[in-house]
């Protein structure tokens, strides 16, 4: 039997096993037993159909294992090892220089259920080293036409990526890497790895944060394809569903993103508590009670000292005030008996019995006087006092006074609308200050993390108090005015990892991007492109930009074409392209901000000077989106940053 036929035979066995498991799951689901569990299991088994098995390791001594998306067994015999299992690790880490006991690594390419190619690497310590694992398969993957949906890279993960994926779950791992270094891909594979490795994370959940809904759609297929359906994905504003209708200026975005807002909001919340200078009159069952300003001050202090959020501390405040009021009432009642002159006061009877009003007050508190009761001193034991406090608390008039002194708050009281995206972290902060809780996750992944404001980070820490986080981004791509220029704002303690190889952008394009980077971020190193395309980036001067673009679209045949520009409105009309963009279209029109994290076969930047004026980072993002060809169409003089492009 040929090697290909042998692998086909094994793949048939694997799919037969997969089909059997699906049947079992479907039958269990039909029986109605633990439907959620079986539905999820069925979805997991369905999602691993494509590329079920993609590799094989042969070890010294003749043993071999097949590597795939999930583990499969026939009885005790392992048919397929999950790529995340320790046994699969050498598939990603073994090198010719350090082969361990691996003698051969085989990449198996399948189409549907058919094996179409084998790519063998003999791990011979004497062979020349190129640093790339499985170069042929890798190059095939990175040059494949783009579809508008991200694919997983499980069969071609590189060693520096593998190391990050399997890094410790605890603490904050920050991954800095230039464009196309696989940060998004690595972050998603790490989620799959952590969920596989740590049972507790499956129970506590993982949250993946992305920069936009379009981006979340782009990455949406990756985790299900890796057999993980249980991850929550969201944008930062999406974590708190409120109506975002406003757009802030850059200065406003920066101001609202600053950590100073946290103390400002805390101050705003504290300021609603009123401490009067004069005693406050409180009416209860037609009795007038006097609440001393000092008693209010004491209650505010006691409530404040609990450190509880506003609405919870309010309850403490209320209990304190009501205790003071109850004491006042008791004093009044007791004074009937114990007035200095021995006289009954306030209409009480001379023998120390109580007035009508006092009886009503006691009745409201549920204190019932029997005929044998002499007076309130003996009557008002601890239970009665508690009943009195409860009655005071439940009284509408008393409640009104309490609410005036310490009003209950909603987040919208603290941060009134209408709201912009930058208000959402402020509303979230306000929610925490007033005492609303949020769902908590076992691990949080943040993609395009350079865009997050300090206030957004606070929002995420509230959702992950354990601070088990994976944070990936590129400081050279920061677009938001409230975004980061260093990783210092990421909650600590943090450890930093780097990705250095660009799998997306060909060397010819990266040379242009590197010049821009050198001008504006001299401290940052551009990533090294894994390949060249043989196509030089070009520029075209055209007074009629929409006309020039229409001609380019007409000429375009292969793969996806993206037009990146600052002002999409005008071009959308002229070129009849959808806004917001449809990523599955043949031609996609979008802003640099929307293009963040995405990639296309061909990219044309319209009016690069305008993009540059918005910020060099925006132009850097736009320049690094193409997997094959880059062009710019400029109506005026070309920015010096792009003067080296070939004139078309
Ligand atoms: N090991 C790999 N094998 C095959 N393809 C890879 C590998 N690593 C990355 N890629 C591909 O490179 C492209 C860029 O990856 P990804 O989007 O994760 O990069 P990024 O660092 O997040 O980029 P950016 O900062 O520009 O958003 C994707 O198409 C991804 O599939």
TrEMBL record:
Keyword Hydrolase: yes
Annotated Gene3D superfamilies: P-loop containing nucleotide triphosphate hydrolases
PROSITE patterns the UniProt entry points to: UVRD_HELICASE_ATP_BIND
Key words of the record: ATP-binding, Coiled coil, Helicase, Hydrolase, Nucleotide-binding
InterPro entries found in the cross-reference section: DNA_helicase_UvrD/REP, P-loop_NTPase, UvrD-like_ATP-bd, UvrD-like_helicase_C
Domain UvrD-like helicase ATP-binding intervals: 156-530
Coiled-coil residue spans: 4-31
Pfam families tied to this protein: UvrD-helicase, UvrD_C_2
Residues annotated to bind ATP: 177-184
Keyword ATP-binding carried by entry: yes
Annotated protein name in UniProt: HelD family protein
């Amino acid at each position: 039997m040929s090697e290909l036929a042998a692998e086909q035979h094994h793949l048939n066995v694997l799919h037969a096993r997969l089909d059997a498991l699906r049947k079992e799951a479907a039958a269990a689901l039909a029986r109605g037993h633990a439907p959620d569990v079986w539905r999820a299991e069925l979805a997991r088994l369905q999602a691993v159909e494509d590329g079920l098995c993609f590799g094989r390791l042969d070890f010294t001594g003749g043993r071999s294992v097949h590597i795939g998306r999930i583990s499969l067994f026939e009885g005790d015999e392992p048919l397929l090892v999950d790529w995340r299992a320790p046994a699969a690790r050498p598939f990603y880490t073994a090198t010719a220089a350090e082969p361990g006991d691996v003698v051969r690594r085989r990449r198996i390419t399948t189409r549907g259920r058919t094996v179409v190619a084998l790519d063998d690497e003999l791990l011979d310590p004497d062979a020349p080293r190129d640093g790339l694992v499985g170069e042929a398969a890798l190059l095939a993957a990175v040059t494949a036409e783009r579809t508008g949906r991200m694919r997983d890279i499980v069969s071609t993960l590189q060693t520096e990526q593998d190391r990050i994926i399997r890094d410790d779950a605890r603490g904050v791992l920050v991954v800095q890497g230039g464009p196309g270094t696989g940060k998004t891909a690595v972050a998603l594979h790490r989620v799959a790895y952590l969920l596989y490795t740590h049972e507790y994370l499956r129970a506590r959940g993982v949250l993946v944060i992305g920069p936009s809904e379009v981006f979340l759609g782009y990455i949406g297929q990756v985790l299900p394809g890796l057999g993980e359906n249980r991850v929550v994905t969201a944008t930062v504003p999406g974590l708190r569903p409120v109506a975002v209708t406003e757009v802030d200026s850059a200065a406003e975005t920066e101001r609202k993103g600053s950590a100073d807002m946290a103390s400002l909001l805390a101050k705003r919340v504290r300021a609603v508590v009123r401490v009067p200078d004069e005693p406050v009159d409180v009416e209860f069952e037609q009795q007038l009670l006097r609440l001393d300003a000092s008693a209010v001050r004491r209650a505010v202090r006691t409530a404040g000292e609990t450190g509880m959020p506003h609405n919870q501390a309010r309850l403490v405040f209320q209990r304190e005030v009501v205790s003071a009021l109850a004491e006042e009432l008791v004093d009044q009642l007791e004074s009937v008996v114990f007035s200095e002159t021995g006289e009954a006061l306030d209409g009480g009877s001379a023998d120390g019995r109580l007035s009508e009003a006092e009886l009503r007050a006691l009745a409201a508190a549920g204190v019932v006087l029997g005929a044998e009761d002499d007076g309130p001193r003996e009557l008002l034991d601890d239970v009665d006092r508690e009943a009195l406090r409860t009655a005071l608390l439940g009284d509408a008039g008393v409640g009104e006074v309490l609410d005036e002194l310490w009003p209950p708050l909603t987040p919208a009281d603290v941060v009134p609308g209408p709201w912009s995206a930058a208000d959402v972290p402020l509303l979230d902060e306000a929610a925490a200050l007033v005492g609303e809780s949020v769902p908590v996750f076992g691990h949080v992944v943040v993609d395009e993390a350079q865009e997050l404001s300090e206030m957004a980070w606070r929002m995420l820490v509230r959702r992950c108090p354990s601070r088990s986080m994976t944070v990936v981004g590129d400081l050279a791509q920061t677009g938001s005015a409230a975004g980061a220029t260093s990783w210092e704002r990421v909650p600590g303690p943090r450890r930093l990892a780097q990705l250095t190889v660009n799998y997306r952008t060909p060397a010819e394009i990266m040379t242009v991007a590197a010049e821009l980077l050198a001008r504006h971020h001299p401290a940052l190193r551009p990533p090294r492109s894994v390949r060249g395309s043989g196509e030089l980036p070009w520029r075209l001067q055209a007074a009629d930009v929409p006309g020039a673009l229409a001609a380019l679209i007409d000429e375009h045949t292969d793969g996806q074409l993206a037009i990146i520009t600052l002002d999409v409105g005008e071009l959308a009309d002229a070129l009849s392209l959808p806004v917001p963009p449809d990523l599955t279209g043949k031609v996609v029109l979008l802003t640099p901000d929307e293009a963040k994290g995405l990639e296309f076969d061909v990219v044309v930047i319209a009016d690069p000077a305008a993009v540059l004026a918005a910020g060099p980072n925006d132009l850097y993002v736009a320049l690094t989106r193409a997997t094959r060809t880059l062009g710019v169409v400029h109506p005026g003089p070309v920015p010096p940053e792009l003067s080296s492009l070939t004139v078309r």
